[in-house]
């Protein structure tokens, strides 16, 4: 590529044109993005999706993922996944699929890196705990969108493109992402967490490879890496054959069976649950504490809110942003 004689502005335009010429018909094209809530001047070098990926990485919420639980709370050992390493694994899987299908890799990466920004301390135990006490409930994907839309940059959010925002909300379960890239992240999230949670469970010694349902491992493989490889190739092959982002029904069935197995034998296993039991009500107790002592929330946190913001929502945002270790220290300090 010859850049002599081009201005910086041409670099983004060349990239946008390359997308138009080289990406598949299914791919989202940055030139036709539905745009941002607050219009901004374009970057001369990066497309809007590249820029969003960078915004997510440079956010404080992204850095805090390092100290948030994936499946095992405060595990004994440094090799267990955290919410950050889960996010990176989802991003790697989603980018492999995206590149193979000639989708927009920058958009895929932006969505994947942002998809769990709203995760609260203690993973699903924390989500369940907060969900039962906050009026209107608590769902992490909605919180992720609140973080990117509202809570950053003095209340204006990260001002991400509509495609990235929408798919951060819809990556979960029944959500229907608006682009092929969003769908890829949705599938990659499941491929990543089912398999790496098995890997972490093996590490705890509470699970053995031979305990896994035989029909699943016969199809998907007998090692974590083999299963991820199988599923990634399955999504690529099925999507090429059917012209839409899909996993084959046989692979999907096996993956869901493994997921069900993990729920029954690990996530709700009495031994694992009892180890996590002490954390079960930390967040709700902290919630009630701030409900009574609203003035204890730091002033520099409150300045992003307008007068109409509900007190419950502010407390919820504050708690959701905390890391596991911050909660443990706070809980001890407040003697709850
Ligand atoms: Mg996830």
Task: Provide a compact summary of the structure.
It is built from 17 helices and no strands. The chain is mainly α and 336 residues long.
Number of helices: 17
Radius of gyration: 21 Å
Unreliable stretches, pLDDT < 50, 5 or more residues?
A: none
Query: How far is the N terminus from the C terminus?
Result: 62 Å
Structural class: mainly alpha
Task: Spell the H/E element sequence.
Answer: HHHHHHHHHHHHHHHHH
Summarize the biggest pleated sheet. Answer: none
Mean pLDDT: 89
| Bound chemical compounds | magnesium ion
Q: What is the total tally of β strands?
A: 0
Give a topology summary.
Elements: H1 8-22, H2 48-57, H3 60-64, H4 83-100, H5 105-114, H6 123-133, H7 140-151, H8 162-170, H9 180-204, H10 214-220, H11 224-242, H12 249-267, H13 270-276, H14 282-292, H15 299-302, H16 311-320, H17 324-334
Helix pairs in contact: 2-5, 4-5, 4-9, 4-11, 5-8, 5-9, 6-14, 7-8, 9-11, 9-12, 10-12, 14-16
């Amino acid at each position: 590529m010859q850049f002599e004689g081009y201005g910086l502005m041409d670099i983004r335009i060349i990239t946008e044109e390359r997308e138009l010429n080289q990406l598949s018909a299914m791919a989202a094209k940055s030139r036709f993005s539905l745009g941002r809530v607050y219009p901004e001047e374009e970057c001369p070098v990066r497309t809007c999706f590249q820029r969003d990926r960078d915004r997510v990485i440079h956010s404080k919420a992204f850095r805090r993922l390092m100290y948030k639980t994936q499946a095992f709370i405060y595990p004994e050992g440094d090799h267990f996944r955290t919410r950050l390493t889960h996010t990176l694994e989802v991003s790697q899987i989603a980018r492999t699929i995206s590149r193979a299908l000639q989708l927009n890799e920058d958009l895929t990466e932006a969505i994947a890196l942002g998809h769990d920004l709203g995760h609260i301390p203690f993973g699903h135990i924390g989500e369940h705990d907060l969900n039962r006490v906050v009026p209107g409930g608590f769902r992490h994907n909605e919180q992720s969108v609140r973080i990117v839309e509202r809570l950053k940059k003095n209340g204006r959010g990260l001002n991400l493109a509509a495609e990235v925002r929408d798919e951060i909300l819809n990556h979960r379960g029944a959500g229907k992402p608006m682009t092929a890239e969003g769908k890829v992240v949705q599938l990659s999230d499941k491929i990543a967490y089912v398999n790496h949670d098995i890997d972490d469970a093996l590490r705890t010694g509470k699970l053995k490879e031979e305990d896994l349902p035989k029909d699943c491992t016969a199809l998907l493989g007998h090692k974590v890496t083999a299963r991820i490889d199988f599923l990634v190739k399955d999504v690529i092959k099925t999507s090429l054959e059917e012209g839409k982002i899909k996993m084959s029904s046989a692979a999907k069935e096996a993956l869901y069976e493994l997921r069900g197995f993990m729920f029954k034998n690990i996530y709700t296993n009495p031994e694992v649950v009892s180890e996590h039991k002490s954390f079960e009500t930390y967040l709700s107790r902290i919630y009630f504490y701030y409900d009574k002592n609203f003035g204890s929330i730091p002033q520099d946190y409150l300045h992003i809110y307008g007068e109409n913001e509900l007190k419950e929502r502010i407390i919820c945002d504050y708690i959701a942003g905390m890391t596991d270790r911050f909660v443990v220290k706070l809980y001890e300090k407040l003697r709850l």
